[in-house]
C-alpha cells in the first residue's frame, strides 16, 4: 500500500465515506503518518525484523574510525542488541562441535546438545555450553544512538571481523498495510480533526452541529486502546530457569 492510498483510506474513515463535509488536508494526514511511523518502529515488534551486519577488521585500523571510534549504521537500523568478534567457534558459540563432530571421540556423542529427552539433562548441558562461551566469544562493549545511527566502540579496538545483530525497519508499504498502524493513524487523525473543528462554531446544512469533542475523545480512546494492545503483545516468556 502506498502512502497516498493510506491517506485516502483515512479520509474515508474520517468523513464516513463522504457523509461529512469537513476533512483533514492530505498533507496533515501525511504528517501524522510520518510521526506514527517513528513510534511504531520503536515500539511495535512487527514493524522491525532481524538483520545481520559484518564489519571487516581492516575498517577498525582506518583513521576515520580511530578519530571518533564510531561506526555509521544504515538508516534502516532501529536498534543494535549484539556486537561481538567472529572467532569461528561452534554454532552455539561454544565447543559443542568438538563433542559432536570430532571422530576421535565419537563414542562421546551423548554430549551433543541435540540428543537426549530429559529436560534436566538438557538444561545441564546448556549450562556447560554457556560457560564455554566466555572462552570463545569476544564480546565488544558498545553504545548505539538510534537518532544518529552511530555505534560507538568502547574499550579496546577489535582485531577480528565484528558481527552486529540488529533490528531494521520493514518497508513502508508493508507497515502501511498493518492493521494496528492503520487504526492508530486514523485515531490520531480523529484527534487532529476534532481539534480543528473545535476552533470554529458553526452548523451544517439543516442546522446539524458536529460534535468536535466526541470525535476527539473517540480518537484518544482508540489511541490508548491500541497502545495497550501493542504493549500486551510484548509479554515475558512463561518459562524461567533459576540458578
Could you explain the architecture of this structure?
With 243 residues, this protein is an alpha+beta fold. The chain contains 8 helices and 7 strands. The protein has helices at 3-14, 26-43, 63-68, 96-100, 119-136, 172-176, 179-197, 212-233, and strands spanning 48-55, 70-72, 77-85, 138-139, 142-145, 150-153, 162-169. A 4-stranded antiparallel beta sheet has the order 1-7-3-4, with helices on one face. The chain has a 3-stranded antiparallel beta sheet with strand order 2-6-5. α1 crosses α2 and α1 crosses α7. The longest helix is centred in the C-terminal third of the chain and has 22 residues, at 212-233. The chain is elongated, with a radius of gyration of 26 Å.
Put the structure in a nutshell.
By secondary structure, the protein is α+β, with helices and mostly antiparallel strands. Helix content is 43%, strand content 16%.
Amino acid at each position: 500500500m502506498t502512502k497516498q492510498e493510506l491517506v485516502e483510506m483515512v479520509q474515508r474513515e474520517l468523513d464516513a465515506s463522504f457523509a461529512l463535509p469537513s476533512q483533514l488536508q492530505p498533507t496533515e494526514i501525511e504528517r501524522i503518518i510520518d510521526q506514527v511511523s517513528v513510534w511504531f518502529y520503536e515500539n511495535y515488534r512487527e514493524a522491525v525484523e532481524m538483520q545481520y551486519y559484518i564489519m571487516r577488521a581492516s575498517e577498525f585500523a582506518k583513521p576515520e574510525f580511530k578519530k571518533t571510534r564510531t561506526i555509521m549504521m544504515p538508516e534502516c537500523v532501529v536498534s543494535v542488541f549484539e556486537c561481538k568478534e567472529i572467532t569461528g567457534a561452534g554454532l552455539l558459540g561454544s565447543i559443542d562441535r568438538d563433542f559432536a563432530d570430532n571422530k576421535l571421540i565419537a563414542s562421546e556423542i551423548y554430549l551433543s546438545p541435540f540428543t537426549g529427552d530429559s529436560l534436566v539433562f538438557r538444561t545441564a548441558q546448556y549450562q556447560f555450553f554457556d560457560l564455554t562461551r566466555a572462552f570463545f566469544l569476544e564480546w565488544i562493549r558498545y553504545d548505539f544512538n538510534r537518532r544518529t545511527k552511530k555505534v560507538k566502540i568502547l574499550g579496546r579496538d577489535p582485531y577480528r571481523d565484528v558481527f552486529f545483530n540488529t533490528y531494521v525497519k520493514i518497508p513502508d508499504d508493508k507497515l502501511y498495510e498493518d492493521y494496528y498502524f492503520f487504526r492508530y493513524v486514523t485515531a490520531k487523525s480523529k484527534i487532529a480533526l476534532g481539534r480543528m473543528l473545535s476552533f470554529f462554531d458553526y452548523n451544517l446544512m439543516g442546522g446539524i452541529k458536529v460534535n468536535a469533542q466526541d470525535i476527539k475523545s473517540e480518537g484518544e480512546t482508540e489511541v490508548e486502546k491500541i497502545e495497550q494492545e501493542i504493549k500486551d503483545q510484548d509479554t515475558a516468556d512463561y518459562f524461567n530457569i533459576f540458578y
